[in-house]
Structure formats: C-alpha cells, structure tokens
Amino acid sequence: MHTGARIDTGPPPRFITAPALPVLGFGAWAVGGSGWGGGSPGSDAGHEAAVRRALDRGITFFDTAPAYGDGASEALLGRVLRTRRALVTIATKVGPRDDPRVSLDASLRRLATDYLDLVQLHEALDGWESRLEALRRLQEAGKARAVGLCNATHLQIRRALDIAPIATYQGPYNLFDRDVEQRDLPLCRDREVGFLAYRPLASGLLGGKYAAPPQFAAGDHRSKVYWFKGAEFERRRRAIERLRPVAEREGMTLAALALAWVYSQPGVSVVLAGARSTEQVDENLVGARHLAPDTRAAIDRIVADEFRPARVTAQCRDQASVWGQRERFIVQQLDGRTPYEAIAAAWTDRGEKPMIAAQIKVFVDQLAGQGLTADR
C-alpha cells in the first residue's frame, strides 16, 4: 500500500480527512476515451490496465461521471472494481440537467454496484437546488452513502449545506489555478466539508511536455482550454521551465511535483489525478507526498513572478466608463497588486453572475493587445 493511498475513505466522517492526511484518488475522465486524445470511448486496453494498476497499488478512491465517454468510464470501472467493491470508494455524478433518479440508476448499472459511496451534482446551474434535494432523497433510499457538489460558487456551497448533508465539494485546483483558495477551501475547512481537487495537472499541461501550443485531435476538450493558447500558454510555459530545476532537486518529474504541491495544501481531502497508462499511475503515486515548506515557497515565488497582476493605464480607465458593469469592476481593481483570484471572488461575493480568474486573464490580454495596460 502506497503511503498516499488509503482505504479509510468513504462517507462522513471519513471524507473529512485531517489537513496532513490527504488521499490520492483516481480521476476517471481520461480513461473514458472520448474528450482526451480523440480516442473512442473504452477502446484502449491500456486504460483498463491503468485502473487495475491503481487498484493494485493501493488507490481506493475512484471518481467518474456519466459524461466521461458517455458512460464508458463508469463501465470500465465497473468491470475492474466489482471484485473488490467493499475495499474501494466509488464517486460519480449527476448532470445539471439530468433526472437524478434516472441518471443514478443508469450509473449503478454501469458500475455494477447497488450503491455509490458518493453521488455529486456535476454543476450548480439553473434549478440545481431541486436536483440536490433529489440526490438527498436518493441517499435516504440507500442508493448513495453521501452527497456532494461540484463546480459551484461559495455562495452556492453555503446554500447547499442548508438543503442536504453535503459531504464533499469538488473544484479545480492546481499551482496555476487557485480560485478555490479565496473562498471555497476556507469554507470547506470551516464547515467540515471534504474538498476534492480535480485538474491538479492543468489537463496535462503541468507534465511539461509542450514546448509550443499543442494541436489536439478533433473532439479533444483541451482544444478549447484557454491556457493551451496564446499569451496564457506562454506564461505557463515560462513558469514550467523555471519549475524544472525545482522538480530535479526533489528527484521528481514535473507532473509529480505539481501533484505534490496540491497534496501539500491545507484543507485538501482528495487529489484526483487522471492516468491513461500504468506508467502514469506510478508517476502520480510519486507525487502523493508532502513538500517541504521551502520547496512550496520556491514554487509559489515562481508562479507569482510569472503571473503578476496587470495595471491599467489612465486611458483604459477613461474608456471603461462606458463599458459594462463587469468590465468596469475589473478595470477598477487592476492596480498591479490585487490577484485576479481576489478580484473574481469579490465580484462573486455580490451575488452577481460568478466570475473566475481565467476570465480576467483573458480580458487583461485583450486590454494589453490594445495598449491599455502599463509596463510592469
């Protein structure tokens, strides 16, 4: 059993792990086939080998969804995990516009089990409260041992806690994308909600293999991700090159270093790392360790230096007076000091349409292209 993988996961209180004891979980989107590399759902025998390797090496938390390969990910997990069902935690999701009972029953069939350890609402879109209530009823009926929420704002998480006994919240978190540090992680710690970190490798970018913006196969979701393009890709590439010596000093690959950074953050309960091969599983396990404070500080300095907030020009402030409310709000905060995550959180606090730092980065790049940001 690898030290980063444990069998004491499951419904509360075991989801609520101490900050020093996170768990490395298996994120099963990539093994679903579609959306990653243009493969066919469930077509690669290597994907099944990856799941078996994870299980054999002590990973016992598996997170999937019906949307991953149109059910192929769930079916794959069902084939591999059924013989050791009592030893693993299986988490799946219900789509934001799906009928919860119909969706969950289909997931149970594909996963070859009569219960789920965790069922999560995949997104908090319109009508999400009623779907969460339905998940609570399904939990009470014995179809799920715990209920969780994904991809929501901190305001929605607070509201969710009044609707159902939320055990977990799942959100994106990596050393580049830190929105959750502003509101979500502190809230989860305060309310004893387990935090599940997905996309810890920034959809593979933090593996460090891209020297230029990649051209993904048709159907690969990463072709639409903004950090694989333009100025944002270049910023991240520079940071990754500066992180290489840090990884070498630690005797780790870049991917393992990135996982270890998330693994070391207070309040993280489960780090969900995907793998499409046995080699990737082994590499992920190397990253299931705590980094020393000075190593974390070195990483944070590099990231902060490459992602310094922009300062707008006086001309920009003048022009913004006739722009939309969101744009004016952002421009007012672009003082060269305030992190974009803090700006996004402050806007979301107002109860308006939520904002994330990525939207601000794209907007700032547009301003820079028009000469409306000052030199740093």
Please describe what this structure looks like.
The protein is 42% helix and 11% strand. It has 376 residues and is α/β, with parallel strands linked by helices. The chain has two domains: 23-300, TIM Barrel; 314-369, no CATH class.
Helix-and-strand structural type: alpha/beta
What is the N-to-C order of secondary-structure elements (H for helix, E for strand)?
Answer: EHEHEHEHEHEHEHHEHHHHHH
Shape call: globular
CATH topology of the largest domain: TIM Barrel
Radius of gyration: 21 Å
Side-by-side strand order of the widest sheet: 1-2-3-4-5-6-7-8
Helicity range: 40-55%
- Share in β-strands: 5-15%
Low-pLDDT residue spans: none
Number of helices: 14
Characterize the largest beta sheet: strand count, sense, and whether it forms a barrel: 8 strands, parallel, barrel
In CATH terms, what is the architecture of the largest domain? Alpha-Beta Barrel
State the CATH class of the largest domain.
Alpha Beta
In short:
By secondary structure, this protein is of the alpha/beta class. It has helices at 45-56, 72-81, 100-110, 128-140, 154-163, 184-191, 230-250, 254-263, 278-286, 293-306, 314-320, 325-333, 340-349, 357-369, and strands spanning 23-27, 61-63, 89-94, 118-121, 147-150, 166-172, 194-198, 268-274.
What would the keywords be for this entry?
single chain, eight-stranded parallel barrel, 2 domains, 14 helices, TIM Barrel, 376 residues, alpha/beta, 8 strands
Give a topology summary.
Layout: E1 23-27, H1 45-56, E2 61-63, H2 72-81, E3 89-94, H3 100-110, E4 118-121, H4 128-140, E5 147-150, H5 154-163, E6 166-172, H6 184-191, E7 194-198, H7 230-250, H8 254-263, E8 268-274, H9 278-286, H10 293-306, H11 314-320, H12 325-333, H13 340-349, H14 357-369
Parallel strand pairs: 1-2, 1-8, 2-3, 3-4, 4-5, 5-6, 6-7, 7-8
Helix pairs in contact: 1-2, 1-9, 7-10, 8-9, 13-14
